[in-house]
Design a protein that fits this description.
The protein is of the alpha/beta class. It has 3 domains: 65 residues, no CATH class; 194 residues, Endonuclease Chain A (Endonuclease, Chain A), CATH 3.30.870; 161 residues, 2-Layer Sandwich (Endonuclease, Chain A). It contains 15 helices and 17 strands. Strands 4-3-2-5-6-7-1-8-16-14-13-9-11-12-17 form a 15-stranded mixed β-sheet, sandwiched between helices. A two-stranded parallel ribbon has the order 10-15. β2, α6 and β3 form a beta-alpha-beta unit. The longest helix has 34 residues. The protein is globular, with a radius of gyration of 24 Å. 43% of the residues are buried.
Length: 472
């Protein structure tokens, strides 16, 4: 019997080692999450715990690589209260530790890809002092090459040019030659290289913010912003391919200072430097004799690991409960967290018209498959779901006639909880109406979604995919 005894002892030893490893893994998860004050949705916390318990040898490396969604920061700051008489939107945004509303003027909502390209290229051509650009993707195609060539030409002429590209977006764009910008006298940086980050546990966090700022220290300062990446499909297409529909805009005014502060913050993180105090906010513009139009109010809403709150998510949640007449949403991907979906359904049930516009087929097939459960719930609650015939990449939320949110945030958990994103909140009815008009024009060509009961297999598969919602 000594052989059997040895086998039993070996099995017992292996089980003891396995149990110890699982215990250590759970302790690492609990202690590290507490130490850096990671706030996770209950479903995400349960998913991590189950992953660690049942597949600890895969889960532990994955957690150390991807398990942290908020950066370490000093003790909680105190939100600046909104001045009396402000709307609920301004009060909420400021309560989420975002800047106060400031003036913006000359807002232009681009009607199509050609108008967006003309505005972008025109701003680069007009730059005299500086160009600061942040984007997720620069494509190795006609549009991406044109932008890079014009940035290089400006850098050679003495304009300070800085380009910030996300690390994963750099790969998705085909690894464009960014070094030619440095050779021309400009600067470029990758925001967290793929599978490597100086912030341990945060390689899965992407910078999805998109903006281009020109001459930020002058009265000619202007911002170009929205959902478009610098690749042909986001503008006019290439080689006969049908372009995606998207939303972007440009503006002038004090608001450019808020965008500049956010860019400086991201640039400093990417290059491993501390942002200079004078770069933390807007700069005073140069004197000008030009008589400028009356400014309208806008507000930066940044979200991501560098923000204490899940700002865009919490603002949308509040908006769903505060809306009285209309909520219009545009997103390419709709895999919302359960509380946000419930809030939208309740808004529809209490008589608010909830319109959701998205593509019939997006570029992410798994996301398209996983979205049906949420679409069925919203449609059956009285919401109106519209499916655009072509790929629609825009991100927009319009609430009554009081708030329009436009920028880079999709309505899925990755975008709302993991990515660095930015949205611009417009409060003036005139500006809100421009975005609502854009929405109505895009919706006119869309078809109504019809909810259908899923079969057993599809229902199970949807549930399994939704467990991966943070990656969709």
């Amino acid at each position: 019997m000594p052989i059997d005894l040895n086998i039993d002892l070996n099995i017992g030893h292996l089980l003891s080692v396995h149990g110890l490893f699982v215990l250590i893994a759970v302790l690492v998860y609990v202690i590290s999450s507490h130490a850096v004050q990671q706030r996770r949705h209950p479903s995400a916390a349960v998913a991590w715990m189950l992953f660690i318990l049942f597949m600890p040898y895969l889960a532990m490396p994955a957690f150390l690589l991807f398990g942290f969604r908020k950066l370490s920061r000093p003790a909680s700051s105190v939100a600046t209260p909104a001045p009396p008489g402000q709307s609920w939107a301004v009060e909420t945004i400021m309560a989420l530790r975002q800047p106060a509303p400031v003036g913006c003027r000359d807002l232009v909502v681009h009607q199509d890809g050609r108008a967006a390209r003309d505005a972008l290229i025109g701003m680069i051509a007009a730059a005299r002092h500086s160009i600061d650009c942040s984007t997720f993707i620069v494509g190795r195609d006609q549009l991406g090459n044109e932008v890079m060539e014009r940035l290089c030409a400006k850098a050679r002429s003495g304009v300070r040019v800085r380009l910030l590209v996300d690390g994963v977006g750099y790969l998705m764009g085909g690894r464009p030659n960014l070094r030619r910008l440095a050779a021309a006298g400009g600067e470029f940086a990758l925001f967290v290289e793929p599978l490597w980050s100086k912030q341990k546990g945060r390689t899965n966090l992407r910078n999805h913010r998109k903006m281009l700022l020109v001459d930020v220290n002058s009265a000619a300062a202007r911002l170009w912003c929205g959902g478009r990446n610098f690749a042909s499909e986001y503008f006019e297409g290439e080689g006969g391919a049908r372009p995606w529909r998207d939303l972007s805009f440009d503006l002038r005014g004090e608001f450019v200072g808020q965008a500049r502060a956010l860019f400086e913050h991201d640039w400093a993180f990417a290059v491993g430097e501390a942002a200079a105090p004078e770069e933390a906010g807007a700069s005073e513009p140069e004197p000008t004799e030009e008589v400028l139009p009356v400014a309208k109010a806008a507000q930066m809403v940044a979200s991501g690991p560098d923000q204490e709150d899940d700002t865009v998510y919490e603002l949308l949640l509040t908006a769903a409960y505060r809306a009285r007449e209309r909520i219009a949403l545009v997103t390419p991907y709709f895999v919302p967290e359960s509380a946000l979906l419930l809030a939208l359904c309740l808004a529809a049930r209490r008589g608010v018209r909830v319109d959701l516009l998205m593509p019939a087929r997006s570029n992410h097939r798994l996301s398209d498959f996983a979205r049906d459960r949420a679409l069925r719930a919203l449609a059956r609650a009285g919401g109106h779901v519209w499916l655009a015939p072509t790929m629609l990449h825009a991100k927009l939320a319009v609430v009554d006639d009081r708030l329009a949110l436009a920028g880079s945030t999709n309505l899925d958990s990755r975008s709302l909880f993991l990515n660095y994103e930015l949205m611009v909140a417009f409060h003036e009815p005139e500006h809100v109406e421009r975005f609502e008009s854009w929405f109505n024009r895009e919706r006119a060509s869309a078809n109504a979604y019809v909810a259908r009961d899923p079969g057993l297999v599809r229902d199970v598969m949807e549930g399994m995919l939704l467990s991966l919602a943070f990656q969709l």
